[in-house]
Every structure is written in C-alpha cells, then in structure tokens.
Design brief:
239 residues, 8% strand, single chain, disordered N terminus
C-alpha cells in the first residue's frame, strides 16, 4: 500500500511539474485576448499610463517621448522575460531551418524562424503570464536587457520611472514584485533555459518580498488561468 501511494503521488507530481502554456499557440492570438483582459484595467506596465484603443494617454502619467514618437504613440505587448532569453538556445534561432527562407530565397534565423518552426517556442512566445501592455518606445528601448538596480534617478521619459544604463533596466518599485514573479514562473515552467541567473535570483527574491501580490495581479492571473489553462503559482499562492 505504501508503494502504491508513493506511485500515485509520483504520477500527480510528474503531471504538474511544469505548468506551461499548452493552449494558446500564437503571439497574435494572445495579444487579442489580452486587450479584452485589460479593458477593466487599461494601464501600461512600466510607466502606469492609461490607454485606449491601443493608444497611450501621456497626460495620465507624464510620459514624454524621447526619440521614437510614432512608436511611443502605440501600445505593444512586451515579454517581461525577453524572447531571446527562452529562445536563443533553440537550433532554429541559432542556425535557422531549411523552411526559413523568404519568397526571394533569402535564409533567415532568430526569433522569426524559431516561431515558424518550433511549436514549443510558439507556446512560450504566446504565454500570457509573461505579456504586459507597454508604450511601444519603452518596449523597444528595453530590448532584452536584464533587470537590475541602477544608482540615481535619471528620468529620461518625463515622469516615467524607467531607467536604462549599461544595458540594464531598473523598473519602478510598484511592479518589481510582479516582474520577479513572472521571471520565477517562466524559469519554473520552462526549465533548462537559464532564465534566472544566480546573480538575479537574490534580486528577484528581494523584489518578490518587498512588493507583494496586489489585487489586480491576482485578478489578472485568475483570468489568464481560465483562458490559458495553467497558473502562475508564484502569483496564485500569494493571492
């Protein structure tokens, strides 16, 4: 009986080890679903600007575009854990694929090829737990830079508390826990990709504690769970 119980528990644990996205196949579908989810809380992630119909309201948050005014005036859905972090180890990303050829016969690789060929990467790219509304210019500036703490408060985008220095990002304090829990989730759900470095583990542990789960984070996680079918346990257990 003892061995039977152990075997049953092993099956249960094994079937729930990696709570990955296995239902939303494309990034484009995720973006459409997220627009509906955010109708009740249309606030950009990094700068806290309100938005409507994919257009941010700068006066609501004091944002001032720096260089790319056109991109600043649209909402984009940013991967908090950059696609590079979970996709660059794939063969299609590094080396391309025979099917990754343009109509003009030019070969390509990277994210575009990985998304076309790898179903697993497609699910990761479409994982809504990792996607947040962001001013387009900020999304572009963030690139795939890691999160960090930066000395000083050099505000280059009006009142938006978003800093970039030496290819590192410091977000505002009120979303640092959110970011930490997204990184923890992606690192747990999609193992073996080195999403969280040893250096950043301590940082994210601290951010997770100092900025606990809030009501919108709980509501968002529950809605995504209902649609996508898997939880971010680092959020849900704190709700």
């Amino acid at each position: 009986m003892r061995y039977l119980i152990f075997f049953v528990l092993l099956i249960i644990i094994s079937s729930n080890v990696y709570p990955q996205n296995k239902s939303i196949k494309t990034f484009s579908k995720s973006k459409k679903l997220l627009l509906k989810i955010y109708e009740s809380n249309a606030i950009t992630f990094y700068c806290g600007c309100s938005f409507k119909l994919k257009k941010p309201n700068f006066s609501s948050c004091g944002y001032i575009p720096k260089n790319d005014n056109e991109r600043a005036n649209r909402i984009e859905w940013e991967h908090v854990v950059p696609a590079y972090d979970f996709g660059n180890s794939l063969s299609e990303w590094k080396n391309g694929h025979p099917k990754c050829v343009t109509k003009k016969g030019k070969k390509y690789k990277g994210r575009k090829c990985a998304a076309k060929i790898s179903k697993k990467f497609g699910f990761m790219l479409a994982d809504m737990h990792n996607l947040f509304p962001t001013i387009g210019e900020i999304n572009g500036l963030r690139s795939n830079y890691p999160m960090s703490i930066i000395n000083g408060e050099d505000r280059k985008y009006g009142e938006c508390d978003f800093e970039i220095k030496n290819k590192k990002i410091e977000p505002r304090k009120t979303i640092r826990g959110d970011i930490a829990r997204v990184y923890m989730y992606m690192n747990y759900a999609y193992p073996g990709r080195g999403i969280i470095s040893k250096k950043n583990k301590k940082l994210f542990d601290t951010w997770n504690i100092n900025d606990p789960v809030d009501s919108w984070e709980c509501k968002r996680e529950k809605i995504i769970y209902k649609i996508q079918g898997n939880k971010n346990i680092f959020v849900s257990r704190g709700c």
